[in-house]
Write a structure and sequence with these properties.
This protein is of the alpha/beta class and 257 residues long. The protein is built from 9 helices and 7 strands. The chain has a 7-stranded parallel sheet with strand order 3-2-1-4-5-6-7, with helices on both faces. Strand 4, helix 5 and strand 5 form a beta-alpha-beta unit. Helix 1 runs parallel beside helix 9 and helix 5 runs parallel beside helix 6.
């Protein structure tokens, strides 16, 4: 884990420790990329974290990570309802669910089969987890944070499936916020900007594409998964007790430039 990520996670964990000590958190997609950063943040905030990844390789890598290995590491394919239901049932009580499981297939998503697969993982998978976790979160008056995107608002010519799924995440978040409110479950989302993760490695290695992104981003850098922690920890916390149905943009100013 690089120094910047570690330092930022530690700072977020310090001010959030009074909120999350003893709380139980499920993070899907929590063993790599943005999800791993969020898992680390909740661990450092004192939460008991169940982090679910899609493959054995991801789980092995997480076990080798000094901080991620402190999570209860599970394997789940969010396309499979039985796996999702079994995972959530095995968690018992839950206070927070963060949905980070997702894929992107640049240049391939105009194939209807690929489009369908991307939407099934990113959007339908999120709904499956939310529906499965609803009873447990109702018992705790808990919170959900979904992973939206800048492409919840913009088009993506190379990624129609990803853009459609992330637009759907924004609307799903607003709809579930209304539906789950009688049970005092708050449902929000974050919309990250350009974050340095394995999913963006190709863009970062392309000097022309990376420069174009940085030139439009007012803060003039790629974000890190730790940059998203403050927003997630806030949205799930007691100080956000009157916040639901919000899509919080965390993008270094890209959307307004």
């Amino acid at each position: 884990m690089d120094t910047q990520v570690s330092a930022s996670a530690s700072q977020s964990g310090a001010w959030a420790s009074t909120w999350y000590a003893g709380k139980r958190v499920l993070v899907t997609g929590g063993t790599s990329g943005i999800g791993a950063g969020i898992t680390r943040g909740f661990i450092e905030a004192g939460a008991e974290v169940i982090a679910a990844g899609v493959g054995e390789a991801e789980i092995r890598e997480a076990k080798a990570d000094g901080l991620l290995s402190r999570a209860d590491l599970r394997q789940v394919d969010v396309r499979e309802p039985d796996q999702v239901n079994d995972l959530v049932a095995s968690c018992g009580d839950l206070d927070v669910v963060v949905n980070c499981a997702g894929v992107i297939r640049r240049g391939e998503e105009h194939d209807p089969d690929v489009f369908e697969s991307v939407v099934d993982i990113n959007l339908n998978g999120t709904m499956r987890v939310c529906a499965a976790a609803r009873p447990a979160l109702a018992r705790s008056s808990g919170a959900i944070v979904n992973l939206a995107s800048m492409l919840s608002f913009f088009g993506g010519g190379l990624v129609p499936g990803y853009a459609a799924s992330k637009g759907g995440i924004a609307q799903l978040t607003k709809s579930l916020a209304i539906a789950y409110a009688p049970e005092q479950i708050r449902v929000n989302a974050i919309a990250p900007g350009w974050i340095a993760t394995p999913l963006t490695a190709g863009l970062r290695s392309d000097e022309q594409r990376s420069s174009a992104i940085l030139d439009r981003t007012p803060l003039r850098r790629w974000g890190t998964s730790s940059d998203l922690l403050g927003g997630v920890l806030y949205l799930c916390s007691p100080v956000a007790s009157f916040v639901t149905g919000t899509v919080l943009v965390i993008d270094g100013g890209y959307a307004v430039a």
